[in-house]
Amino acid sequence: MEGKRRQGGIGLAVAVALIYVFLLLPIIIVVLAAFNAGEYLSFPPQGFSLRWFEKFFSSEPFVRSFIFSLRLAFITTCISTVIGTMASFYVVRYSRIGKDFLRVLHTAPMMLPGMLTGTALLIFFYTIGLGGTYAGLLLGHVLVTMPYVFLAVSAALYNFDRSLEEAARSLGARPFTTLGRITLPLIKGGIISGAMFSFITSFDQFPISLLLSGVGMTPLPIQVFDYLRFEFDPTAAAVGTVTIVMTAVIILVTEKFVGLESMYWGSK
Amino acid sequence: MTPQGQRGKVAPTFLLLVPSVLLISFLLVAPYGYMVPVSFCKPGQISGYEKAFTLANYAKALGDSYYLRIMMWTLVYSIGTTLGCLLLGYPVAYYLARTRTKWKGLLMIGILSPLLVGVVIRCYGWMVLLADNGLVNSLLGRLGIGPFKLMYNPFGVMLALVHINLPFMILTLTGSIQTIDPVLEEAAQSLGASPRRTFFSVTLPMSLPGVYSGTLLVFLQVVSAYAIPVLLGGFQVMMTPILVVQQVIDIFNWPFGSALAIVLFIVSGLIIWLYTRAMNRLMRGLA
């Protein structure tokens, strides 16, 4: 029986392998281009060089944008993690009516097209006096990252064994003690992976940043985008490689705490 | 059962919801709602709009053949990209849902990792590959073919759009196919159905809910894509979101920008509605 299904399996495996190449190729190419000496990545490559990294780190606008994005992503993540965690506690545990509505409402910022949300926010912010301000940009980032925390923490809460809390309480623990000693440590994984996705989403955020960043505030993706519109040299590849490495480190550290697969299929 | 009940007093748990609901109503509901009146205003001389009623923005968005043509092409690219993602995504999702290899974790990381690289950086990867003097053309040149025009045309834009959205499709489909019990496929085969017949009469119909959510997700992303068509289309391939951003940021004509965005929103909504109806009928017919 198993053998019969494996027969069609070879064609499938080849197709799948090719699609993986397609998925990963542009990312590998970015890394290769960053270490290539030439202006263009051609075949054969023109030798190993770190000149594009030097150009990145000696370019003031790029370095400034890099630090700006790191700070913005950090502040965004702090806020959206708290707000998203609180909301998921209510929706999973306490909401009696409108649970589905609340769930849709809290994931809507993620589902709605970023370009439209950004346009709507831009017009709205200028009207109420937040246009082109750091606060406006930050609020936009919190809005689109909060759903990731909400989903991750909700998944953790659904898998949570309530009897542990009841045990703690029946042994005389106060509600806040139970929360701090039992509940939070057990859903730590959900909170951490939500925060991680929030950080990465904010750091890589394009449409919201494009529409909401004001003068003197250029997040890294916007800086790279503006650069690529006029120039084409591998400085962009160096920036990309640094962010890829940074993201990989964040994910590996997160993996230490929680399996990432739980983000998608761990719930219920 | 409930912790509040045990203590005999009701904790004000709804307070947990206050920040997020404030955030969403203030930053999502209000701004989207506000776009509607703005789209009926006249463009302003100094500020983004002037408080005077007009239908001219909609007349222009729906009547001018330039904007209509771009809207039509936006929909064509979006539907094409969605189908491309479905065709490439299904085999991978099927494989991931059914495989028993110990490398599954690694294979999942392969799908997730592109999502964690910014869209602009991934576009740059494609630009390096597809440029006139890029990697693909330099490889083909060695073989004595080409050079071909691979970007700044719809081909390059759609290739990158498929690439960027493929992980969403794969993740959605994998989740859906995993819920189909393999025993059903085995039963069909043991009753004499060919693998092809098994696929078309068991697997595919049962995974239609996943197909539906995956295609919807991708369509919504593509119809509002901006960075990819700009970078790989080089303003040779226009899509409505590019026009919206031009109006709002460069020309400062918020009313017309809003009207274009709202028309795009409504047209996509109509397509999604029709699609949902058709899919529902299809799924009911098969159930």
From TrEMBL, chain A:
Family matches, as InterPro entries: MetI-like, MetI-like_sf
Alphabetic keyword roster: Cell inner membrane, Cell membrane, Membrane, Transmembrane, Transmembrane helix, Transport
Residues annotated as domain ABC transmembrane type-1: 66-254
Localization: Cell inner membrane; Cell membrane
Biological-process GO terms, alphabetical: transmembrane transport
Record's bilayer topology term: Multi-pass membrane protein
Residues passing through the membrane, by range: 12-35, 66-92, 104-128, 134-158, 179-200, 235-254
Primary site of residence: membrane
One Pfam family it belongs to: BPD_transp_1
One Gene Ontology cellular component: plasma membrane
Positions in coiled-coil regions: none
Top-level taxon of the source organism: Bacteria
Keyword Phosphoprotein: no
Family to which this protein belongs: Belongs to the binding-protein-dependent transport system permease family.
Record's protein name: Inner membrane ABC transporter permease protein YdcV
Species of origin: Moorella mulderi DSM 14980
Lineage: Bacteria, Bacillati, Bacillota, Clostridia, Neomoorellales
TrEMBL record, chain B:
Membrane topology: Multi-pass membrane protein
ABC transmembrane type-1 domain boundaries: 71-275
Keywords, alphabetical: Cell membrane, Membrane, Transmembrane, Transmembrane helix, Transport
Pfam families (alphabetical): BPD_transp_1
CDD domains for the chain: TM_PBP2
SUPFAM superfamilies: MetI-like (SSF161098)
One BP term from GO: transmembrane transport
Gene Ontology cellular component annotations, sorted alphabetically: plasma membrane
InterPro entries: MetI-like (IPR000515), MetI-like_sf (IPR035906)
Transmembrane segments: 12-34, 70-93, 105-131, 151-171, 216-239, 251-275
Keyword Membrane appears in the UniProt entry: yes
Family of the protein in this entry: Belongs to the binding-protein-dependent transport system permease family. CysTW subfamily.
Name used for this protein in its record: Spermidine/putrescine transport system permease protein PotB
PANTHER family recorded: ABC TRANSPORTER PERMEASE PROTEIN, INNER MEMBRANE ABC TRANSPORTER PERMEASE PROTEIN YDCU-RELATED-RELATED
Subcellular location: Cell membrane
